[in-house]
Write a structure and sequence with these properties.
Low-confidence stretches: 160-165
Strand content: 5-15%
Shape: globular
Mean pLDDT: 93
Radius of gyration: 21 Å
Structural class: alpha+beta
Number of helices: 14
Largest sheet: 6 strands, mixed
Length: 350
């Protein structure tokens, strides 16, 4: 069985912008790294239905409002670094943005939906004058399973030997989660050490920063600021419903508009991370809970979110923020206030 440390490092990661164009950018960046710096002639990215839909009209950070998988792919070919994971575009600058716009305008980038593929799938093919490199991402947004150069395999996902002989792909953390019952899984939160607590609370700081950006700028549909304004004096009352909604909405407003700040994601989604983290933190801060208790409750929320996502699919037509991360936040809040797993389960079911 995996540990809470392995879970957090796999399922709770910084992400710059929406994770769907982030995965597209990551695939392109990884392919380009095999091409030795030669000028890119064309990029074709085949994506699943969900990647295509989710990345079509979301803001790309640092682009002053540009949107879509094609801009993310073009930028990745110029400045992307796969070692950054879902922060793959963080080194890009204004010059990169202008060059990327020119690439897209010249028809050098193609995003092709494969409607027979569902969930997370990205196949990025990058051509230069002489070479072609391909990188494939499957199942999770950072899970690169194959890299080829001119048809030769450069990297293939690790395989493990079964006891009876045949090989099989090594289980990912989401697959490990899918094989556990709920109580067994969320009990991992009790095994957190000081390093894990710091990691979780770093995610709080990250998501609060982008929430503050959402409050101080007109971004997205400006929902966070609107909720806070309409709440008036009620905003800081013991009824935390307005504050929870406003803080989470402000962070999402900023993220989906392309604010130049990362968020701490959960189960492969930045909005899931916002939803799973900030409501639990707001409640914990209001009631003066210890830092370690808040961190464990947020970890509980992350674990719950991944538990549900492992049953419903990484990407789905159903809103994961409400069904998975929303349930995660509810369970985390109840666990923070009661330390009772049965009550946390009841909160998820309501």
């Amino acid at each position: 069985m995996f540990t809470i440390k392995e879970f957090l490092r796999s399922e709770v990661k910084p992400a710059l912008g929406c994770t769907e164009p982030g995965a597209v950018a990551l695939g392109v960046a990884r392919a380009v790294e095999e091409l030795g710096g030669a000028p890119v002639k064309h990029i074709e990215v085949v994506v699943s239905d969900s990647i295509y839909k989710n990345g079509m009209y979301v803001g790309i950070p640092g682009t002053n409002g540009l949107k879509g998988n094609d801009i993310a792919a073009a930028m990745a070919s110029l400045c992307g670094r796969s070692e950054y994971g879902l922060e793959v575009l963080k080194d890009c600058d204004e010059n990169t943005v202008e060059l990327s716009k020119s690439m897209v305008g010249a028809g050098l980038v193609s995003i092709v939906p494969d409607l027979a593929r569902h969930g997370v799938y990205v196949e990025a093919k990058v051509n230069t004058e002489k070479d072609t490199a391909v990188a494939v991402i499957e199942n999770t947004h950072t899970n690169i399973t194959l890299v080829t150069l001119n048809g030769k395999t450069i990297f293939q996902a690790e395989e493990t030997k079964q006891e009876d002989g045949p090989t099989a792909k090594k289980l990912s953390i989401p697959e490990e989660v899918a094989g556990m019952n709920f109580t067994e899984l969320v009990s991992l939160a009790e095994d957190m050490d000081a390093e894990d607590v710091d990691y979780v609370m770093n995610g709080v700081d990250m998501n609060l920063t982008i929430a503050e950006y959402g409050f101080s700028h007109t971004v997205g549909i400006n929902l966070g600021s609107t909720i806070r304004e309409m709440a008036g004096d009620h905003y800081d009352s013991d009824d935390l419903s307005s504050k929870v909604k406003a803080v989470a909405a402000a962070a999402s407003d900023a993220r989906m508009d392309g604010a130049p700040y990362p968020v701490m994601s959960s189960a492969g989604s930045g909005n899931h991370g916002i939803t799973a983290i900030l409501p639990v933190y707001v409640v914990g801060e209001h009631y003066g809970k210890h830092r370690e208790d808040i961190a464990r409750a947020i970890a509980f929320s992350h674990l719950t979110t991944s538990f549900i996502k492992s049953r419903m699919g990484r990407l789905s037509p159903v809103c994961g923020c409400s069904v998975a991360a929303g349930a995660g936040a509810a369970s985390g809040i109840v666990y923070l206030l009661s330390k009772d797993i049965k009550k946390a389960i009841s909160a998820m079911e309501i």
